[in-house]
Amino acid sequence: MNDGGIERAQAKVLTSVWAAAGLTLARDLRLAFRKRGQLVQPLVFFAIVTTLFPLAISPELSRLRDVAPGVLWVAALLSSQLALEFLFRDDAQDGTLEQYALSGQSLSWLLFAKTGAHWLLTGLPLALMAPLAGLSLGVPVAAVPGIVASVAVGSVALSLIGSMGAAITLGVKRSGALLSLLTLPLAMPVLIFGARATELAVKGESYGAPLELLGALAVLGITLAPLATAAAVRVNLE
Amino acid sequence: MAWTWFHRLGSPPYIYNLAARLTPWFAWPAALLMLAGLVDGLVLSPTDYQQGDGFRMMYVHVPTAYLSIMIYTTMAISAAVGLIWRIKIAHAVAASCAPIGASITLCALVTGSLWGAPMWGTYWEWDPRLTSELILLFLYLGYMGLRSATEDVQRADRISAVLAVVGIVNVPIIHFSVVWWNSLHQAPSLMRLGKPTIAVSMLIPLLLMLLAFTLFFAAVLLVRLRAEILSRERSASWIREVVTP
């Protein structure tokens, strides 16, 4: 390549990778905070689902304590599904995703930043909310750090699995049920290790091993999921 | 020059005719081997000293369980080939695999459950293999649901290929997490198929059935592939020559 070509190529890249990711993240957060009502909906859903179990099973705390890890994780899994359908939908309709694809930045990196925003808006609040729901189900206070850690780490993996599902179903109208059908089987390992970590935390035992496995799933998701998400978005932009 | 055979593999009329010619070569050996395997397995092979005649379910259950994974792998590999090299026929193969795989997986689940009834005293046990088989069925159903929800065939091909590749990466993770989950929650006291050795008199019919089922899958795949090619190429001129006598 001659010198002029290199200069042109350098001039094309105006923003660095980190700045691009930061801008994408900031944009998504700003957009989300303009619709605060929608922001709290997954949390309210999570609270309602955990309320259903005492009504359906029994109000006795001793019985609820046994099922609490499962209840917390199934509720967290379901409420993480709620916002997924709209993760990329608006941006696909108004052409933002096409601009991302044409921007010269790595599409998988930008979509990873979007997924990061999604985690900050759903996964992190769920992690902070889960101990509250856990305490109402009779979980001892000592288990709170374990619950927060497992939901926080596990929801990273859930957000990344969900971003793949959302990108894959981008071309499908009314994709809600299909999206759950695609993502829930992939999310089962997260549920298994997450519920196990929470269960051990509730019993007061060491929950390090399942938490590390959750971390492994999250790291695997961070490395591979954005590639699949970008591939799926590209197909749906064609 | 040497690559012309390879390029012909991408041509729908060539594959259509090749599939038609190859089908009997898979179907007849499959039928004969299955007959031999069934006679050997159900009549000739000895009764298991622990499980009585119930273990004979193995001759159908093990081949279907193995095929359910093998078909998913075939589907994912051909989907990846179609995605990377943009070969239409590879996508057609992947699309034809899915319904076969889903029905075989269902067979594996049903035979496993029927086998469980006399052995475990219950039709359903949250056994790791049954559970991951069930999740595999969900993966097949998701793939087929995605295909049917996407109207444009080319987009359906490419997007479902992404899903198939994502799925194949996850199959081992799901399997091992389910095994790990299960080993924590119940003592491994149940009947295990994987006894260290299996008697030769039982192994031979099992191998016959494994081969028979694999050939059966190949034959059904070829038939489905032809139907798939017909529906995809319905506006092409060569179809008229093939279909009208």
Task: Give the structure's gist in a few sentences.
Chain A has 238 residues and is mainly α. Helix content of chain A is 82%, strand content 0%. The two termini of chain A are 30 Å apart.
Outline the fold blueprint.
The complex is a heterodimer of chains A (238) and B (245).
Chain A: H1 3-12, H2 17-34, H3 36-56, H4 61-82, H5 89-93, H6 96-102, H7 107-136, H8 144-168, H9 176-203, H10 208-237
Helix pairs in contact in A: 2-7, 3-4, 3-7, 4-7, 4-8, 4-9, 7-8, 7-10, 8-9, 8-10, 9-10
Chain B: H1 4-8, H2 12-44, H3 58-85, H4 88-120, H5 128-149, H6 153-185, H7 200-232, H8 237-243
Helix pairs in contact in B: 2-7, 3-4, 3-6, 3-7, 4-5, 4-6, 4-7, 5-6
How would you describe the overall organization of this protein?
- In chain A, helix 8 runs parallel beside helix 10 (208-237).
- Helices cover 82% and strands 0% of the residues of chain A.
- Chain A is built from ten helices and no strands.
- Chain A is elongated.
- Chain B is an all-alpha fold.
- Chain B has one domain.
- In chain B, 79% of the residues lie in helices and 0% in strands.
- Chain B contains eight helices and no strands.
- Chain B has helices spanning 4-8, 12-44, 58-85, 88-120, 128-149, 153-185, 200-232, 237-243.
- In chain B, helix 4 (88-120) runs antiparallel to helix 5, helix 4 (88-120) packs parallel to helix 6 and helix 5 (128-149) packs antiparallel against helix 6.
- Chains A and B meet through helix 9 and helix 10 of A and helix 5 and helix 6 of B.
